[in-house]
UniProtKB/TrEMBL annotation:
<keyword id="KW-0509">mRNA transport</keyword>
<dbReference type="GO" id="GO:0031080">
    <property type="term" value="C:nuclear pore outer ring"/>
</dbReference>
<dbReference type="GO" id="GO:0017056">
    <property type="term" value="F:structural constituent of nuclear pore"/>
</dbReference>
<keyword id="KW-0813">Transport</keyword>
<keyword id="KW-0539">Nucleus</keyword>
<dbReference type="GO" id="GO:0016973">
    <property type="term" value="P:poly(A)+ mRNA export from nucleus"/>
</dbReference>
<keyword id="KW-0653">Protein transport</keyword>
<dbReference type="InterPro" id="IPR007187">
    <property type="entry name" value="Nucleoporin_Nup133/Nup155_C"/>
</dbReference>
<dbReference type="GO" id="GO:0000972">
    <property type="term" value="P:transcription-dependent tethering of RNA polymerase II gene DNA at nuclear periphery"/>
</dbReference>
<feature type="domain" description="Nucleoporin Nup133/Nup155-like C-terminal">
    <location>
        <begin position="145"/>
        <end position="276"/>
    </location>
</feature>
<dbReference type="GO" id="GO:0006606">
    <property type="term" value="P:protein import into nucleus"/>
</dbReference>
<protein>
    <submittedName>
        <fullName>Nucleoporin_C domain-containing protein</fullName>
    </submittedName>
</protein>
<keyword id="KW-0811">Translocation</keyword>
<dbReference type="Pfam" id="PF03177">
    <property type="entry name" value="Nucleoporin_C"/>
</dbReference>
<dbReference type="InterPro" id="IPR037624">
    <property type="entry name" value="Nup133-like"/>
</dbReference>
Length: 318
């Protein structure tokens, strides 16, 4: 029934010869039919004797939701064409909210993140409705993105409001991921919740920053050394990691001399590679992104020097 309605609706909406008023009337009619169907489903569920618990409901299957989503897209397109001044705008908007809520209620948690449905309400400047839907159905990613578009003080206040409202580890993890991916490293390091420690524990590439922030220099320097070993494809990154490892090791109350010597040896090897490639130093200091340069092994550096007839081998031991 729903698919048949949608096919007829698509034909009318896609017909350039039809008047806009008739298209609006068609959208309203089909929307009413879908809502009646939705209410019938709700009523049957209210009357149900058996509780299915966490089992998948038939309405959660994507092919069942497809007609509702398709209609909602046509509804928003129609609103965009007719404008806010359309006499049916409020009626269509109310239908849109009911259908949107039904769809999002049936969707899985991951499918609700960065919801295109919420985005549609934002596109027609219905920000209050969009945010209420996002809050009700836990579209954390949209809420975080919108909050982070606010001025700094407002952003922090809004984030704290959401943390208190949701009281959810999932929200915190998505917030930390957003901070990490969008350059809010300072904010991320300032977070003191236990969830942040768990997050950093899974983020090896930046976890050492948290260790430095907490004064755990021993842990930070060993993490940095490990990361440097995994960065042989990028000598610039490798040198940077080793330099931080050296500084972290020197910050310890009791300096581990053996560890420090190992870091210095690795840095000296990179210095020898610089002598083979005079342009490498400029790339180290360049503020612009540069293509990766592989880190050479000691054997490769020795072979390169031995094969260079103009090379003064003594310079490698300066």
């Amino acid at each position: 029934l729903f698919n048949g309605l949608l096919e007829e609706e698509e034909d009318i909406i896609g017909n350039d010869d039809e008047m806009l008023d008739y298209k609006v009337e068609c959208i309203e009619y089909v929307g009413t039919a879908l809502i009646i169907g939705k209410e019938a489903i709700d009523q049957r569920r209210d009357d149900a004797v058996l509780d299915i618990g966490n089992d998948l409901r038939w309405t959660q299957e994507k092919h069942i939701l497809k007609p509702f989503i398709k209609h909602l897209n046509m509804l928003f397109n129609c609103i965009n064409q007719a404008g806010h001044e359309c006499s049916k705008y409020v009626a269509l908007l109310k239908q849109g909210v009911v259908i949107a809520a039904f769809i999002m209620n049936e969707q899985a948690f991951d499918d609700r993140q960065n919801s295109p449905i919420v985005a549609k309400f934002l596109e027609i400047s219905e920000h209050t409705i969009a945010i209420e839907l996002a809050k009700r159905f836990q579209d954390y990613k949209t809420l975080i993105r919108l909050a982070c578009a606010l001025p700094d003080i407002e952003r922090k206040a809004k984030i704290e409001e959401y943390k208190e409202f949701f009281s959810s580890g999932d929200f915190c993890n998505m917030l930390y991921e957003y901070y990490l991916e969008n350059g809010y490293m300072r904010d991320l390091l300032e977070v003191k919740e236990p969830e942040a420690n768990l997050f950093f524990a899974t983020q090896t590439n930046v976890g050492w920053m948290r260790d430095l922030e907490n004064g755990d220099f021993a842990k930070a320097c060993h993490t940095l050394k490990t990361l440097s070993r995994k960065s042989n494809d990028d000598v610039i990154l490798k040198r940077r990691l080793l330099s931080f490892a050296k500084l972290s090791a020197l910050c310890e109350d009791e300096v581990d001399e053996n560890f420090l010597e190992g870091v210095k040896r690795d840095l000296n090897l990179i210095k020898l590679q610089q002598k083979l490639d005079p342009n490498l130093e400029m790339k180290f200091d360049s503020p612009d992104p540069v293509s990766k340069i592989r880190s050479c092994t000691a054997e490769e550096i020795i072979r390169a020097n031995l094969s260079d007839t103009s090379c003064n081998i003594d310079r490698c031991f300066e």
